[in-house]
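On clarity, I found the account of how folds are encoded harder to follow than it need be. An entry of this sort, consisting of the sequence and the corresponding backbone structure tokens, reads as follows:
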Amino acid sequence: NGLITSFLCVATVVLTPALLAALGFTATGIASGSIAAKMMSLFALFYGGGIPAGGLVATLQSIGMTGLGWFGTGTVAGIGSIVGSMISSICNVTVKIEGSP
């Protein structure tokens, strides 16, 4: 039970920055031709030519450039821990069929 929770907690903290970089949210800015660039273009069209501060694209780019920080690391770790606990609970269900030994 605790092993799955711990694994997902660590995995989410380690993989979140790697996933953002793979999407194109890099330390040097949004990568040309990436999914992040397409998101930025779509959001700019939706918002009339600009990207709002604090919006999804701006937040993801901020994390991509600076990392998660203490609050982000704690949040992501907490989410991983909750998901791990849920998966562990689902996997540890015992079903007893009546009439079986």
Summary: The first helix runs from residue 2 to 23. The two ends are 26 Å apart (CA to CA).
